[in-house]
Specification:
The structure is a single chain. This protein is mainly α. It has one domain. It has three helices and no strands.
Length: 138
């Protein structure tokens, strides 16, 4: 692909033949398409990896939340059975574990959301390329 800054190194349009211009256009369009496809592939691979990390965070958050729930149940049992300060300690630990699990679930849900799948760089690059092509056609 001809970089935008390299455009000045080509002969002016008036010195090139129409066939040469079409040949350049076909070659550069093909190269541009290949580069855009490569960029899209790379960006999608990155997005898929981030979804995998988000899925792991969701699973970890669910596990931690479940452990916290079990501790809370244990705290309720201690509270009913003994009515001693032991239950208060178990209750505090259970709440802390549930909060940690809830935070992990929220972060994982955000990381797996649909907005993370949009190939933003590729879309920006395509817009830039279209603008550049419009400028070249003037």
């Amino acid at each position: 692909m001809v970089a935008r800054e390299d455009v000045g190194t080509m002969p002016p349009r008036s010195e090139r033949t129409v066939a040469g211009l079409f040949s350049d256009l076909a070659r550069e369009a093909s190269r541009l398409a290949r580069q855009e496809i490569a960029l899209a592939k790379a960006e999608l691979v990155q997005k898929i990896r981030s979804i995998g990390a988000g899925a792991v965070e969701l699973a970890a958050g669910g596990f931690v939340l479940f452990a916290g729930f079990l501790v809370l149940l244990e705290a309720a049992v201690f509270a009913l059975a003994l009515v001693l300060p032991l239950w208060a300690a178990a209750l505090i630990i259970g709440v802390i574990v549930c909060l940690a699990g809830g935070l992990l679930l929220l972060k994982g849900r955000r990381d797996v959301g649909p907005q993370t799948l949009v190939p933003g760089r590729t879309l920006r690059s395509l817009r830039d390329d279209a603008e550049w092509a419009r400028e070249q056609m003037r």
